[in-house]
Amino acid sequence: MNISHSWLKAFVPHTLTPEQLRDLLTAHVATVEGLSRTRADLAPFVVARVVESEKIPDTKLSFNKVDDGTGTLLEVVCGAPNVTVGTIYPFARSGTLMPAGFTIEKKKIRGFTSNGMLCSARELGLGEEHDGILALDTDAAPGTPLLDVLPLSDVVLDVDVLPNRPDLLSHLGMAREVAALTGIAHRLPEELDTLAPVPTLAASGASEASVGGVTVRIEDLTGAPRYCAVVIRGVKVGPSPEWLVKRLEAVGSRSINNVVDATNYVLHGFGQPTHAFDLAKLSRQTVVVRRAKAGETLVTLDGAERKLTPEMLVIADADRAIAIAGVMGGRDSEVTDTTTDILLEVASFSAPLVRATRRALGMSSDASYRFERGIDDVATGEMSRLCAGLMARLAGATVESVISVGAAPAPRTAVSLDAARVSRLLGDSIPATETRALLTGIGFAMVEASAGVYAVTPPSWRHDVTRDVDLIEDVARLRGYDRLPDTLVGARPGTVPDHPLHVVSVRVRDALTAAGLLETKPLPYTRSDDDSLVRVDNPLANDEPFLRTSLVETLSRRAEYNLSRMQGNLRLFEVGTSFIKDGAALVREEIRVGALLMGLRRPVHFTEPQPPVFDAWDAKALAEVMARAAWPGARVALVNPEGEAAGALTPLWRVEVDGTRVGVVGQLILDAPAWAAATFGIELTLGEMSAAYVAAPGTHNYDAPRPAAAAGAPLRYVPLPVTPAADFDLALLVPDALAAAEVEAVIRDASGDMLERLVMFDEFRGTGVPAGKRSLAWRLTFRHPERTLRDKEIDGRRSQLLKTLEQKLNVVPRTA
Amino acid sequence: MTLDDFTSACSALAAEAPARIAAADSLDAWTAVRNDLVGRTAGRLTAIMGTLGEIPKEDRRVAGQAANAVKVELERLLDERQAELATSRGAGPQIDGTMPSRVTWQGARHPVTLVVDEIIEIFRELGFTVALGPEAEHAWYNFGALNFPADHPAMDLHDTLYLGKDTVLRTHTSPVQVRTLQAYPPPVRVLIPGTVHRRDPFDASHAPAFAQVEGLVVDEGITFADLKATLSHFARRFFGAGTKTRFRPSYFPFTEPSAEMDVSCGVCGGSGCSVCKQSGWIEILGSGLVHPAVLESAGLDSTRFTGWAFGLGPGRTALARHGIPDIRILYDSDVRFLEQFSR
Lengths: 816, 343
Ligand SMILES: [Zn+2]
Description:
Number of strands of chain B: 9
Largest sheet of chain A: 7 strands, mixed
Bound molecules: zinc ion
Oligomer: heterodimer
Mean pLDDT of chain A: 92
Distance between the termini of chain B: 81 Å
Strand order of the largest sheet of chain B: 1-4-5-9-8-7-6
Mean pLDDT of chain B: 91
Number of helices of chain A: 17
Largest interface: A-B, 106 and 109 residues
Shape of chain A: elongated
């Protein structure tokens, strides 16, 4: 909302500077986002006195000496006929940018040098007058800034008015607040002191009335509770006076003509949207407020043809719609230069209906903006008097009659306020007398219903006050948030445990960053050509309307983005939400962790100019790190991925924790250039995020099962060995079809309790190893807890083990 | 054996020894030289001193002094040479210590996570825990339970992505306020981090999905003064001890009174600059006392319990803190950007 500093001053004669006003409103009312000066383009202009002047022969030009306050008289050539010695004029020095967009430069004219320009009103953008330069009636010293001499400039405050306070969408509304905060009473601006008399009619309750041949009828009293029509005849449509043009210009509203400007003056000054119809164009001099007919259309003021539906409220004459109620007038009944008779509409329309209509039409106007937030519906009569009176005066016309239909709004419901609760909520002792003074200061009526408890009735312009806390907010802000105490005091510990998925996510994130991975937070949307994904009903752009299921798919797109920027060494991860389409519940959400590996396993070092690239074994190891971080103490196994669907990733292993599937490790196929290394992905599900109702509205669920805290017995200490170990190596010829894990299982089983460690340290194919087999080598470490193992015992175990391997698996040592 | 014989033997040894000591080019050679010169068993000086008894009694004192002087001198030379050899011992091939160390890849948290983690850390000191909730949310939790008037311009502040008639992508983390209050009895002191969605274009200053952190306190006797005190404390911990805060009226359907909190501009210190749009203040978060209707949505007695809540966007904070000019950089995941946040 644009608030003009000078217009506001006409409502409340305060002495605040624009900056003080900005700070006052921001602290107590609504945030002022910025200050701007109107006609800032005139800031470089000064006033100057013509000291000497002579005609240049055979031209219309004069050669002048001008005092611009610099101490040196300037030579200036002027084309105007009215240069008068001793008179003060607006002056543009050389280098000044003119409102028309060109710069005044020093130049030679007919052999005379000109060091600037004496300006006409038109050259300054102050009107169409161009008979000559603008003589100023002022005592100001030459060199004084022009804006200090002419009251042309105003300061506009850009106020961020939030949806709960539509009463602030006018200068009157702001004036009420400033008056309460400064203690200076507000009044009607002087320009409204002498208005043509207009009778103010009380609401009759009737839905139809006729006066002097003009009929007004409301067919939908819910949509339009009140409608005042003022008939004004003998209108002379023409330009508005300068004061009105300036008022409107300051708030960003262009002057159109005296009739339309009067309606805009009431809109921005008082917050009441009104509309002027050309009465002659209304069929049978009739106005009907009704629902639109199916198929009805209307060309609105902006020239667009609107298709109307019966859900919309329109103003119609006897034949057709002439305006969309509360939104915009029609072009055919618009006031034009030839209009002589006017029907002025001052009405109140249903906020939800105006909102629904303008949304259905995809349009908005100053009027709809105010109607859908709520106007002062008690002020309709007063607003017709002001608007019609002003219009009649400006257009030299006569107010013929006022037709009022509809009912007066129901009186506002009082809100009960316990004065003690004000102090209790704000944490400061606030006397009831102060609460009363603050609230009555902005129009509330207060009656003490019982000791310390008040019935507080909001003024008609406030629609946001329905509970005591709304009143407490008004007390707090008028008093000043900054005047309330802010002492930090102790608090009782809360009952809510950390959400287990937060705890797990943090652990996994820490493990991954420690492992050298970089966290990403990409957009969770994706494209899709099937309907297996959750679709957004109303996506803004149609390129990514689906919610992703797979995190590694999102990471793959980010990897491609990096590749397109020549970055091929990637270690990315994300902890985020996977959206899974779920018939009954619509969406099932899982918190997952996804990781992507591509490129060099280590940075280049002078000892290793070409480090190896990440391979499947790195991915497997990282998956183990992730799973152990997420489920400490649990048994992590990476197993054959049989049955895993290939999606964004070609599965290499399924990840199981205590026998339950938690995710998958695999290779990713990217849209990648030839130089890119193989890409591996890991995706684990950390847990499900339930979207079920915790409890029915208005109830608790305190007894429902809570997510258990991460259980697990504390780790037990294993005593350090006090006896020496003995070890030997086994190199076995293992058929390709036989899994290494099976061989390990037999080794462990046959070795007994004393096997402390089993490490595979080599795989070899080639010379000496038959085709279809590989040589796998293990080192076995044995230890007896109490004594040293004898060589014979170890040899015995080795022979026994080889025998068992041969019997059970037909696996023999490589050397045999 | 005369005194002359004795002293000339000493002098001969003293004359020959320095060159031999200097010639010892390793600790082994030095040991051999030392044993040969002054060794206790086979040393030549030891042997000379062994002849002292053969010298006439009256000359023995002088002879002893001469031998001792040689011994002191030889031992000094041997010590010096040993020290020289020791410093060059084990040098092997030369190392240029200025060459780079063998580093591994460095991981990093995302800059938005860094902000969220820091906020959580500060509030943990004040006894807050972390609550979470779903992103695909019932419209009731997202709007109705939070006192949004149906079909009201307040809804225009939340451009919503719908998944169905009554399911939305949550537009703020506030639904978790009601979920938490339904599940746990007061006192409740929680932080709620999470991703929220708006029907916004993806441009330099908007993203359709972004992080939010919400805080909620509900108990008996919670006041606006508690809100101001806690949030001002947070501002001083997060932005620096000298940070000033300012609270100004605002509007959120789920808080009443509502307040926007600004902090004094860290760039200009409050005198006004382009960062703070000449106001001296930077807008940080929205807050307010929990609206009684929200407490009632969760089945709490709003005459007994009160509370306060706040919400802020860590993404904007990260942009401001690191001078990142375009919000899309946070989402692009360019490794050269992410690596800048390696610890
Ligand atoms: Zn600043």
